[in-house]
Design brief:
mainly alpha
C-alpha cells in the first residue's frame, strides 16, 4: 500500500467500503429494514457533533478553538466515529422500544427517530458553525458531507480491518442470518437467540455506516447500504449469490466513482463527456460513487435476465401473444366442431364476431398461424390444418376440463364458467391436466369415453347455435 498513488489509495478504500456496505446492507433490504441504514446515518450526526465538542472542550472554554492540542488529532478520527456509533445504536434502540411498547408501526417509528436525531444534529452543527476559529471545524464537515479524496493510508487500513471483521462475522453467522432474515418465527421456535442476532446484525450495520461517514457523509451513506442490495435482488433469488453480487456492485460503484471524479473518462476517451464546460476532477467523490451505484441499479432494473423490467415485459408480451394464439385455435375448433372430423372453412366475419376481435387483429393472428403451419387461409376464410387441429384439441381439452372442475368443485353455474376458464386454461401444465382429468373421472363428472379426448362443452356454445341456424350447404367445407 506504500507505493499506491492517491487515486489508487482512495479507489482501494472506497471499493472495500462499497463491498462491505453492499453485503451488510443486503440483510437490511431482505428484512425490509432499508430505512434503518438511513436512520443510522442520520442518527450519527448528533454523536459526531457531541464528540467534536468534547474533543474541543478545553479550547472552547478558552474561546480559542484553534488551540486544540496536537495530540488530540491522533485519536480525533476514532473518537468522533465512536460518538457516531453510540448515537446510531441509541437511535436503533429507541425505535425498538417504540415498536415494542407502543402501537406505532416500525416505519413511523423510524421516521420519528430519524427526524428527531437529525434535528438535534443540525442544531448542534449550527451551534458549532457559529463559534469562532472556524478553521478547526473542517474535521466535522468531513463527516457530514464526506471527503473521500482526502483518504489517508490510516483510513484505508481502518476500513480494511472493519471490512474484514464484518465479512468474517457474516461468514460465521451466515446460516443464522439467513434463517433469521427469511423466517424469524422459525428461528425463535428453534430456540435461537433472535434478539441477540438482531442486535449483532444492527451493530454490524451501524459499524459499517459509521466507517463510511468520512467517505460519503451522513446523507449519502444510506444509499451505499441500500442500493447494492436492491440492485443485486434483480439478478438472483439465492442469498449467497445475492451477497456476492451486492458486494461486487458496491465495490464497482466505489471504483467507478473514484475514477470518474479523478478524470479517468478524459484519459480513456480523450474528452470528458460529463464536463459540460467544467472540470470533473473537482467533482466530490462520495456523491459520484452513489450516482455510479444508482446507474448500476438502473441497469439491473432494466436488464436483469429474470427480474429486470425488459425481461418481464418480454415475458408478458410472449404470454399475451400465446393466449391470443390459443384463443384463435379454440375459436376455429369450436366453429368447426359440429362437423368434425371434417374441418370447416370458417368465414372471417364469423371469427371476428365470435371473439369480438377487430378485422386487423384477426388477420394478424391468421398470418402467424399460417406461418406456423396451423391454419390454411384465404381472403375471406380460414380453417385448421391437421397440425393445427391437434394443437387446438389440446387447448380446448384444457379449457373444458377446467370448466368441469369449476362446476363440480366451485359450484359455479355452467353458463358462467367460460370466462373464468379463459383466464386459467393457458397456465395448466400437462401434469396438472392429467391429475384434473383423473379427479373428474373418479367423481363421475367426466364420462369414461371422454378420458384422453376432448369432452363436450358443459354449456351451449354460440358457435354451435350459429351452425344450426345456417343452412347445411353454407356449412359444407370445400375440398382441399
Amino acid at each position: 500500500m506504500i507505493a499506491l498513488s492517491n487515486t489508487q489509495l482512495v479507489m482501494l478504500g472506497t471499493s472495500l467500503l462499497g463491498c462491505v456496505a453492499g453485503v451488510v446492507g443486503s440483510f437490511a433490504v431482505l428484512r425490509r429494514r432499508a430505512l434503518v441504514g438511513d436512520l443510522l446515518a442520520h442518527a450519527a450526526l448528533p454523536g459526531l457533533c457531541a464528540a467534536f465538542l468534547l474533543l474541543n472542550y478545553r479550547a472552547l472554554s478558552a474561546r480559542a478553538l484553534g488551540e486544540v492540542a496536537a495530540a488530540t488529532s491522533a485519536w480525533r478520527f476514532t473518537a468522533m466515529l465512536a460518538g457516531a456509533f453510540v448515537t446510531g445504536l441509541v437511535g436503533v434502540a429507541v425505535v425498538t422500544f417504540i415498536c415494542r411498547w407502543t402501537r406505532t408501526k416500525e416505519d413511523a417509528a423510524i421516521g420519528i427517530v430519524l427526524g428527531t436525531f437529525f434535528g438535534v444534529g443540525v442544531v448542534l452543527s449550527s451551534w458549532i458553525q457559529n463559534m469562532p476559529a472556524a478553521s478547526s471545524k473542517a474535521g466535522l464537515q468531513t463527516y457530514i458531507y464526506g471527503q473521500a479524496a482526502g483518504m489517508t493510508r490510516e483510513d484505508v487500513w481502518f476500513i480494511t480491518i472493519v471490512a474484514a471483521a464484518c465479512l468474517t462475522l457474516v461468514a460465521l453467522l451466515y446460516k443464522e442470518f439467513k434463517v433469521f432474515s427469511f423466517d424469524p418465527g422459525f428461528a425463535r421456535a428453534q430456540g435461537w437467540p433472535t434478539l441477540t442476532l438482531d442486535l449483532v446484525m444492527m451493530a454490524t450495520l451501524a459499524l459499517v455506516t459509521v466507517v463510511g461517514l468520512p467517505t460519503v457523509g451522513v446523507v449519502l451513506m444510506a444509499a451505499m447500504l441500500i442500493i447494492p442490495g436492491a440492485a443485486a435482488r434483480f439478478w438472483t433469488d439465492r442469498l449467497g449469490r445475492m451477497l456476492v453480487v451486492s458486494g461486487a456492485i458496491g465495490a464497482a460503484s466505489g471504483i467507478g466513482g473514484t475514477l470518474i471524479s479523478a478524470g479517468a473518462l478524459e484519459s480513456v476517451l480523450g474528452y470528458d463527456p460529463l464536463a459540460f464546460g467544467h472540470n470533473t476532477r473537482n467533482l466530490p467523490t462520495g456523491p459520484v460513487i452513489v450516482l455510479c451505484g444508482t446507474a448500476l441499479f438502473l441497469v439491473s432494473l432494466l436488464f436483469a435476465p429474470r427480474r429486470g423490467a425488459i425481461a418481464r415485459l418480454v415475458r408478458m408480451l410472449t404470454v399475451r401473444r400465446r393466449i391470443q394464439h390459443e384463443h384463435l385455435l379454440r375459436s376455429l375448433y369450436e366453429l368447426s366442431e359440429p362437423r368434425l372430423p371434417r374441418v370447416l372453412e370458417v368465414p372471417l366475419s364469423q371469427l371476428i364476431e365470435d371473439r369480438s376481435w377487430t378485422a386487423a387483429g384477426v388477420r394478424r393472428l391468421l398470418r402467424w398461424a399460417g406461418r406456423a403451419g396451423l391454419v390454411e387461409r384465404t381472403a375471406t376464410s380460414a380453417k385448421l390444418t391437421t397440425e393445427g387441429l391437434a394443437l387446438a384439441e389440446r387447448v380446448v381439452r384444457r379449457h373444458r376440463l377446467w370448466e368441469l372442475f369449476l362446476i363440480s368443485g366451485a359450484d359455479i353455474a355452467p353458463d358462467h364458467v367460460d370466462r373464468d376458464a379463459d383466464s386459467i386454461e393457458h397456465f395448466l401444465t400437462p401434469d396438472l391436466v392429467r391429475r384434473l382429468e383423473a379427479q373428474l373421472a373418479r367423481t363421475g363428472r367426466l364420462p369414461p369415453a371422454a378420458v384422453g379426448a376432448v369432452p363436450l362443452s358443459p354449456h351451449e356454445l354460440a358457435a354451435h347455435e350459429a351452425h344450426r341456424s345456417n343452412s347445411p350447404s353454407a356449412q359444407e367445407p370445400t375440398d382441399g
